[in-house]
Write a structure and sequence with these properties.
- By secondary structure, the protein is mostly beta strands.
- The chain has a single domain, classed as Rieske [2Fe-2S] iron-sulphur domain (Rieske Iron-sulfur Protein, 3-layer Sandwich).
- Helix content is 0%, strand content 51%.
- It is built from no helices and twelve strands.
- Strands 2-3-4-10 form a four-stranded antiparallel beta sheet, with no helix packed on it. It has a three-stranded antiparallel beta sheet with strand order 1-12-11, with no helix packed on it. Strands 5-6-7 form a three-stranded antiparallel beta sheet, with no helix packed on it.
- A hairpin with a 6-residue loop joins strand 6 and strand 7.
Length: 107
């Protein structure tokens, strides 16, 4: 599959590690988080009941949904003990710009 890199935010717009930032790109709602000197993009929709993950907090690489406390891993979107998962996208930072890679032919 080939991908398309899309600019989604400025790095300076993102809050400190632990807090999310909501953006819309390619018709999708994404939550951006800083963790381990990287930026991570995850679907801004908790797999449990759809609450925005960008409103949760991130600890040790997991976003904790502020609605019912589900833990969603930034790395692969998996949830503890649950089969549901959130979609994740590859990110890169160039200067002050954050880009997300959208795959052609599906996510």
């Amino acid at each position: 599959m080939t991908g398309k890199w899309v600019r989604v935010a400025n790095l300076s717009e993102l809050p400190a590690e632990g807090l999310g930032h909501s953006v819309k790109a390619e018709g999708l709602d994404l939550a951006l988080f800083r963790w381990n000197d990287r930026v991570w993009a995850i679907e801004d929709l908790c797999p449990h009941l759809g609450f925005p993950l960008s409103e949760g907090i991130m600890q040790a690489g997991e976003v904790i949904c502020s609605w019912h406390g589900w833990h969603v891993r930034l790395e692969d979107g998996t949830c503890r003990r649950e089969r549901e998962r959130a979609k994740v996208w590859e990110c890169r930072v160039q200067g002050d710009e954050v880009f997300v890679k959208f795959e052609f032919g599906g996510f």
